[in-house]
Amino acid sequence: MSTNKTNPQSCTNPSPRASSPPLVEMCSFKKVMAANRGEIAVRICRAATELNLPTATIYAYEDRNSAHRWDSDESFLLPASGTPVGAYLNISNIIGIAKENGVDAIHPGYGFLSESAEFAQACADAGITFVGPSVENLVTFGDKTKARELAIKSGVSVVPGTTAPLTTTEEAEAFVEQYGLPVMIKAAKGGGGKGMRVVHKKEDLVPLFKAASSEALASFGDGGCFVERYVKNAKHVEVQVIGDGKGNVVHLWERDCSVQRRHQKIVEIAPACHHPMEVRKAVLEDALKLTKSCNYKNAGTVEFLIDDQGRHYFMEVNPRVQVEHTVTEQVTGVDIVQSTFLIASGASLEDIGLKQENILPRGVAMQCRITAEDPERDFAPDTGMLDVCRHSLGPGIRVDGFSYPGMVVQPYFDSLLVKYTVSCSTWNGAIRRMRRALRDNHIRGVKTNIPFLLNVMDHPDFIKGSFDLNFIEDDPELLRHLPGTLSAQQLETQGTLGQKYDNIEGYLKYIANLAVNGHPKSLGADPSLVRTIDNYDVPAPKSSDITKILEKKKTGSADALSAPHFRNILRRHGAKALAKAVREHKNVLVTDTTWRDATRMRTADLLKAAEATNTAFNGTSDVFSLEMWGGATFDVSMNFLRECPWKRLEDLREAAPDMLFQMLLRGANGVGYTVYPDNVVYEFCKQAYKSGNDVFRVFDSLNYIENMELGIKAAAASGGFVEAAICYTGDVTSTNPENKYNLNYYLDYAKKLVDLGAHALAVKDMAGLLTPRAATLLVSELRSAFPDVPIHLHTHDTAGMGVASMLAGAEAGADIVDGAIDSMSGLSSQPCLGAIVAALGEKCNLDLDALQVLNDYWESVRHQYNPFEVQALNAAIGSNVFKHEIPGGQYTNLLFQSKQLGLSGRFAEVKKAYALANKLLGDIPKVTPSSKVVGDLAQFIVGMKISEEELVANAATLPIPGSVVEYFQGALGPPPGGFPEPFRTNVLKGRPLEDGRPCFEGRPGSELPDYDFAAAEKTLKEAYGDERISFKEVLSQLCIIPLASIISHTLIWMYLRSHVFKEYLAHEKKYGSIDKLPTHLFLRPMEVGEESHLHLGRGKDYYIRLASIDGFDKDLGTRTVTLEVNGEKWFIRTPDTVTQLVDESSGGGASLKRREKKDPSAKGSIGTPMPGQIVAVNVKEGDEVKEGQTLFKLSAMKMETEIKSPIAGKVTRVLVAQNDSVEGDDLLAEVHAPKIGIDKTKPHPQHVHFG
């Protein structure tokens, strides 16, 4: 054995172990019992079987499906004894079972009763052999104070500490007064890190002592603890010994167990090859000295602390087999568990061939404990079903334990799943082998510590062998960038050392959930059509086909059809240069709105079309831009598509680098539904331009110039091209003297927009009211008034005359017209782009054949989404739009909402009511969010069956929709021509703003203080983690706030209440990023027996078959879905929310024990950090609590956790009782903090709930 401390590669020894006599003949037990569970019970049975011994196991009822029962010849149910753990601690019951069933030897394993002198004596009294140390040994070493006294007597150095167990906090305080801090509190009995706490601060002594004592009592039946000085920067080295009780003891060399967390060993190494040989020899000698002095019998471990100067101090003796005995077995070749049986049967060390001079370590062995713990949540134990379980195998890898697919990890016991032990001739070889073991395993369904262990294996200090007991605590980087976790932010950057993990688990959970529950009703999918979605992925259009088409068309100059690179002009020379280039362009330019109309389609579908689109449009000089973002993108992306809208923009930008991207900006409303503080709009525009947007089409839903001013200036400040939109309504050609939307109105408004700095003007016709005659008049007059300003024309094809209007506008002087690809056009969408191009003839050189390649693709894609489209749209739409003026974008929403409100078949009434609502509100421009106000009022009129006169007269007492109240309060600004009376006055009676005013004066957003982005980001990071939250997430949660929810002094609180944002992150946490899931699997629930193909990249193909869906589990509210993935079965326990709803509505929901979940964004929402059992409830509703006060105690996997209040306040709800079982994140209580005073530096408007 080399003594070189700095060369861990040399930790080998070729000396052979002496040959052994026939072992089987030495062991004559008739039947041996493993008085334990899980991994160690399996290990005991395997060792006994190799000695030809019949085996028996015991199990608590909660363990009836545990795999340790499988390895034994017989298995016996333990009577209930208070708790599941208590069943394994009931000595009389265990002895009774053993006697009744002919057991003559009991092996206790580790934990539970393994160190109980009482249990060993009970075995002896019953005539049963206890396979372990003598009763005297257990009495001595089971009490750490007695062990300490023996060590001192034997001349072994110890750490200063108490000489007897302490039972009161006063005794602990007295010790600290004498010896100072830090100190270690340790359970007088037991081990495994239970009942251990390190105290650094005086104020922590009492609570930590109580916690350690309580945990010791729960784990070992004795709450006594002793206290000793805590050795800083120490290393943990332990010596494996075996004695025969006849005066003979040998050591099996030492182990380094310094990589620990919460005093639980994480990685164990044999031998301790990173320590100098003189230190190793010293601990070996002291271990033998101590155990020989007490005539030690059977296996045990002598544990030492080694300080940074190489001095060693005795800690304790664990008189039992240790969890980490496997590493010693691998390097010495000694079967420790078999040795315990042989010694118990009366054999001597010589009989079984254990001579000290022959016991020499070979190579290096390392063990990692694989536990069901979540490293991202402070190693909180996790429970649930193992979806799939396949262990690493191969040369030099040993697996101890038995977990299996479909196994349920319970909250009652230790979190250990399995142990991987690797051996190799060198230290670095052992690390490489362990990396493989950790990467190649397939354990899914519960969180494990494997990602964390991979980080340990890759840490430079670990590789060098330079680590101590503070290794994990001192390096938080070990818990960051965990390879293979579900975090969507990390999947794209996973390194080569990470677990082999491509989010297949998240995809399969999503597929299982969709198969069980289908799509939420809120998405409006037609169940009868969902099954018609094709079970394959629509292939991308081929750019090469478009290139061939364009090559054939080229004549004359090689670049005759090449694009003028409008984007390069903007990004290099600025917005004014782009405006000039547009005006100088000879032909009519087009903007393709297909990607904007595909808002409800997944980014993956747009990305497949991106290259071909970029090729087609880059091959012509007459395409201006792609409208593809903004408006409802944020709401739809997070609420329906479960995607990040910023990633959508950035990914498409990368895929189509040459085209101008264009977005909709709702003026002071940003891309949301309410007013925002000014700095929010500025920051949003800045980030949008940075992420790849170029053109901002800015509009205000009421054409309110002050709202437009904010949007125009914010967009311009970002560097983008500002296209100020005039929201068109009415009929500009009407000669009616009461027509307020006449030519002068539009020209005056346009002048104000140009004076504000708009680079271009847009006419935004949301409802398709712009007739060809109106387009000719309005555009020609705008062109005459603003000869240098580009004019962009946009309409919806509601009445079927969109193409004609675009053509008329182009003839009148419009520079750019909008259209959508054929299969995405018409009805409530934009007019057909192909028809516009054909009608323009030589004035537009966009190739129709190239467009057809794109159209073929979008036609197939749209079919996949057909079940989510409103099927009644064709019948509901038409020329009557000139009467009701419903915007194209609102048609589908109104139809769906009407159905949800029970107004199916009455849409004709809704349309008439919409016209009446528009009149009552003052005949306003209708576009989000003002169109929502009109729609809400229309459905209110139909639902209430109320006349115009009754509504106006009784508005003060009727339950008017909140959006209508807020509109009249001026939350969106004033409408053209002012608010109508007396309806407004009646609505506002008894509905003042928070500050007492009846309504806003001027622009509402000007009254809001600047949004505190830093505070919001801090709050979000506290709720969701530093790595998950970036500045873009802060913006995202602002963009989906309902109308006027932000109009409150509690800005941050309200932003965090956005259920869409929270549900989006909850979905991501559960399934990971599902961006790469093919659309047919995203939309179409699989059927039993059906197989689908999932391609996740080069060499990553999965063939998924839905094998079965089990019956409904009433206790859990779940179904188990069995999927076969490349032939391997996955068992996925899936909540069945559909059946639950049916049962609850029929009065049968009482058995469904589904609890509320905590709100991570609300500090007073107190949830469980891990699954477990509530053992103490210290509060009741109405109590006032302090910050940091202990409200509950949770017992999880033999570990007690105090759950404290994060804030001071009043307890408004308590949802659990003592002994309740809870899952992770279950809501336990809610604490409301006292209201904070309102900042009076600016007046603050009222928060009114949106109806």
TrEMBL record:
**Swiss-Prot/TrEMBL cofactor(s):** biotin
List the GO molecular function terms.
Answer: ATP binding; metal ion binding; pyruvate carboxylase activity
Keywords, in A-Z order = ATP-binding, Biotin, Gluconeogenesis, Ligase, Metal-binding, Multifunctional enzyme, Nucleotide-binding
- Residues of the Biotin carboxylation domain: 28-477
Q: Which residues form the Lipoyl-binding domain?
A: 1154-1232
EC number from the UniProt entry: 6.4.1.1
Q: Which NCBIfam families match?
A: PRK12999.1, pyruv_carbox
Q: What is this protein called?
A: pyruvate carboxylase
Q: Which organism is it from?
A: Cyclotella atomus
